[in-house]
Specification:
With 217 residues, this protein is an all-alpha fold. The protein contains 13 helices and no strands. Helix 4 packs parallel to helix 6, helix 5 crosses helix 6 and helix 12 packs across helix 13.
Length: 217
């Protein structure tokens, strides 16, 4: 009985990681870069991601000024915690994780977003091992690639922020499930089922538009 209780507590602790501060979310410091090395990493690995960072921030905030503030805060934190970044690894994924945590900690509190989605029912119904791949084809092929425009953008923006985020990370930014799990601080199984649900929700919103363009749902 005690073991089951401990397992339940471990599972719950994984789910609340999304509300961690950036200081708690980044890995412990493991490098001691010189100032010159820090500047080199910042200029050559971090700054090239700034357009993707802004696009992600804008998709989360729907406000140009808030998006710029969020990106600025992300880069300030990235430089502050640069010793926890392993040079040569995926800088984009590392930065996206900081941005996501900053959004949750600071900007989401001030936004008009609906309350966070309750995934318990979703996870029960959409077992990640039973996901029908034919239903959730990568949207880069199925929709976004050929249909990107106001209709797709508006439909995406109507999704709850947690569903919208997985679509952006996977289908627009091309992150793997493993990278998304690290960015979002959730298990890979949760990434799979959340993405499955998000794609289906988006497809429903796009159905009439897709049919008018000759696409079959």
């Amino acid at each position: 009985m005690a073991d089951n209780k401990e397992k339940l507590q471990d599972t719950e602790s994984q789910e609340v990681q999304t509300s961690e501060t950036t200081e708690e979310a980044v890995a412990p410091r493991r490098n001691q870069y010189s100032e010159a090395e820090k500047i080199d990493i910042f200029d050559n690995e971090f700054l090239p991601q700034i357009d993707s960072m802004y696009n992600f921030a804008y998709r989360l905030t729907f406000d140009e000024d808030d998006a710029k503030d969020l990106v600025q805060e992300t880069y300030l934190k990235a430089f502050r915690f640069i010793d926890s970044f392993q040079r040569g690894t995926n800088a984009k994924a590392w930065l996206f994780r900081i941005l996501k945590n900053s959004f949750i900690n600071d900007f989401r509190k001030k936004s008009k977003e609906p309350s966070k989605v309750d995934y318990q029912e979703v996870e029960t119904y959409y077992n990640s091992e039973d996901v029908d791949a034919s239903i959730t084809t990568d949207l880069r092929v199925e929709a976004v690639q050929d249909m990107i425009g106001d209709e797709v953008s508006n439909a995406l923006n109507t999704l709850a922020v947690d569903f919208r985020t997985v679509i952006i990370l996977c289908d627009l930014e091309g992150f793997t499930y493993e990278e998304m799990a690290k960015i979002l601080d959730i298990p890979i199984g949760t990434v799979r089922s959340r993405l499955h649900r998000a794609r289906n929700l988006l497809k429903e919103k796009l159905k009439s538009y897709a049919e008018s363009m000759g696409y079959q749902g």
